[in-house]
Design brief:
The complex is a heterodimer of chains A (272) and B (290).
Chain A: H1 2-6, H2 19-38, H3 43-60, H4 67-102, H5 110-125, H6 128-139, H7 143-168, H8 172-178, H9 184-215, H10 227-235, H11 239-271
Helix pairs in contact in A: 3-11, 4-5, 4-7, 4-9, 4-11, 5-7, 6-7, 7-9, 8-9, 9-11, 10-11
Chain B: H1 2-25, H2 37-40, E1 47-58, E2 61-72, E3 76-81, H3 87-94, E4 102-107, E5 110-111, H4 117-124, E6 127-130, H5 142-147, H6 167-179, H7 195-207, E7 213-217, H8 225-242, E8 245-249, H9 253-259, E9 262-267, E10 270-276, H10 282-287
Parallel strand pairs in B: 3-8, 3-9, 6-7, 7-8
Antiparallel strand pairs in B: 1-2, 1-4, 4-5, 9-10
Helix pairs in contact in B: 1-6, 1-8, 6-7
Classes of the chains: A mainly alpha (272), B alpha/beta (290).
Bound molecules: adenosine-5'-triphosphate (ATP) and magnesium ion.
């Protein structure tokens, strides 16, 4: 109270919510509780799961370190990385022309921007594993289906963010090149893309990390890579091998994240 | 084509001498335009640029209205006015970079307001613009930035970078850099230049296409006094010797009076001043800023 009397204009620390805001909060709480119910949340299972989880751990340890198994899994891991890299590179390259069409005020009229952005939104809305299922049907089982799934997933991601990067790029150089009488395409190639390049590199590295993470589970639906070993391990109750696979994936994914972070500072950090 | 060849030769042969000349000329005060006026007014002077009743507003706020003036070939004109009076906006309208609200703009025979995009490009290819910010492409070399100044005349990937450019274009770019005294920095990355060096590279980019009209928005703002004089001397020589029409914005009253044969002044949403520099005093121009 003394606060308020000394500084008349000072707003109170907590503002009482309006009736509408209050209804909003109440609705949010109801929806969250309802979601727990829908997810089959059960205290019983929470209480009984630690012992079962411990049971899995006990049966999975020690992980299968048989050299022959390790060699087989190593080759599968390599295939996984190849799927990720090939898919990501194709996706990143195709994303550039697609992003040019998606970026507002660049080379395409607004209605084309809208169509392309909507299509990219659709691609992102479909999960990568669903794309893998689609491509398994289209081109058959194997890593090629996985690579296509990664490529299209990357286009959904990079197409959108490349477009945003180009829209955010400094307009000065492109205005100056427009003033020389250059064509739109030349202006984009000479001013807009170079200006957006650090952002492109950063986005591409994220896309590659994402591709590696996705590629490890594509095997679950027969689209190549190490995921199949995980599935077989669990199906045959061969938990030690499954554990080896999980640890391997963890090590590879963490290394890739570290590597891409290093590359990011190396390429972009130095240029600034 | 024939005319172009002659102009090309003229620049190439005068390039080397210009550089030495520039440094010497800073010692000697450049001749006032009106004293050498006889050289400028050769036979007939075709009109290069005509503006009538030009108006522009941003989001309902009028910047200027009813601006009219005309420029003859080879004229050097200074535009002055307080901050925010619309000088840069006026230049953007002249090049068709932003649309004007009303009025007629005719540049080199092109009706800017109604021209097709190909028509606008053809017009811009005969002009050179030095913007208020240097606007170089940061990640490219200085030489590549200057080569890109030729994109209007020679579209296509060969002028995206100096690496792909034909030898003639690379030489022209180097010659333009020599004119601004920066040939030794041709390989430097553009974002590793000082502010004044960047500004001079931007000037070289505007000059490389041998424009008929050169438009410069505060070209000397970030230059030291000597470099500023060098650049203004260079512009003045272009106007006098090669018949280039030069329009420059300047907050430097001395420059405006010394290098502009004519001075246009923007104030109060209009252009109250359009006079020959010889008839103006520094005091007259100061009045414009009150
Ligand atoms: N794209 C834009 N959108 C909205 N307002 C703008 C835009 N560009 C310029 N303006 C406004 O128009 C007015 C004129 O701007 P302009 O850049 O032409 O001024 P100027 O005469 O060049 O000033 P200075 O001497 O500071 O360079 C300013 O008030 C500015 O805020
Ligand atoms: Mg300005």
């Amino acid at each position: 109270m003394t606060d308020a009397s000394r500084y008349m204009g000072l707003p109170s620390r907590y503002q009482r919510p309006s009736a509408l805001a209050f209804l909003g909060y109440a609705a949010a709480i109801v929806i969250i509780l309802w979601s727990f119910a829908g997810a089959g949340f059960s205290i019983d299972k929470v209480i009984s799961s630690p012992p079962r989880f411990a049971d899995f751990i006990v049966r999975a340890f020690p992980p299968n370190l048989d050299p022959k198994v390790l060699a087989r899994l190593g080759w599968k891991m390599l295939e996984t990385l190849q799927i990720a890299l090939a898919g990501a590179v194709i996706g990143i390259i195709l994303s550039v022309p697609i992003a040019l069409l998606a970026a507002r005020g660049l080379i395409a009229p607004t209605w084309i921007n809208q169509i392309v952005r909507t299509a990219l939104g659709f691609i992102r809305a479909v999960p990568d594993i669903a794309w893998a299922l689609v491509f398994v049907v289209a081109v058959g089982l194997g890593p090629f289906a996985g690579m296509l799934a990664i490529a299209i997933d990357t286009i959904g991601f990079c197409g959108r963010f490349f477009a945003d990067d180009m829209e955010a790029a400094d307009k000065g150089p492109s205005e100056s090149l427009t003033a020389t009488g250059a064509r739109k395409l030349d202006v984009v190639a000479c001013a807009t893309i170079p200006a957006a390049m650090p952002a492109f590199i950063s986005t591409s590295l994220f896309a590659t990390e994402k591709a590696v993470r996705s590629s490890t589970i594509l095997g679950l639906v027969g689209a190549g890579g190490i995921g199949i070993e995980l599935k077989v391990g669990f199906d045959l109750f061969d938990y030690p091998t499954a554990m080896t696979v999980i640890l391997m994936i963890a090590v590879v994914v963490i290394s890739i994240e570290y590597l891409s972070g290093w590359a990011r500072t190396k390429i972009i950090g130095e240029q600034r | 084509m024939f005319v172009r060849c002659i102009r090309m030769q003229a620049t190439h042969s005068s390039t080397i001498s210009l550089v030495t000349e520039l440094s010497v000329e800073t010692l000697v005060a450049p001749a006032r335009p009106d004293q050498t006026g006889a050289v400028v007014s050769a036979p007939v002077l075709p009109v290069d640029l005509r503006v009538a009743g030009l108006a522009k507003s941003f989001a309902g706020t009028p910047i200027f209205k009813d601006v009219s003036f005309g420029l003859s070939r080879g004229e050097a004109v200074a535009i002055v006015g307080a901050n925010g009076t619309g000088k840069s906006t006026l230049l953007r309208c002249l090049m068709g970079l932003i649309p004007a609200d009303a009025g007629v703009i005719n540049v080199l025979g092109t009706d800017v307001q109604n021209a097709s995009s190909a028509g606008l490009r053809a017009m811009r290819a005969q002009m050179g613009l030095v913007s208020q910010k240097h606007n170089l492409v940061p990640r490219l070399s200085v030489l590549s930035n200057v080569v890109q100044g030729l994109l209007g005349q020679r579209p296509g990937f060969r002028h995206w970078s100096q690496s792909f450019a034909p030898i003639a274009s690379r030489e022209a770019a180097l010659a333009a850099l020599e004119k601004v005294g920066l040939a030794h920095l041709a390989n430097r990355r553009a974002d590793r230049l000082s502010g004044g060096q960047s500004q001079r590279v931007a000037i070289a980019r505007a000059l490389v296409g041998q424009p008929k009209i050169l438009i410069a928005d505060e070209p000397t703002a970030s230059l030291d006094p000597a470099a500023g004089e060098d650049v203004m001397d260079l512009f003045f020589d272009l106007a006098r010797q090669e018949g280039v029409t030069v329009i420059f914005i300047s907050h430097n009253i001395d420059h405006a009076l010394r290098y502009g044969e004519r001075v246009l002044g923007l104030a109060d949403e209009g252009m109250p001043l359009d006079a020959r520099a010889s008839s103006l005093s520094a005091q007259d121009l100061r009045g414009l800023y009150d």
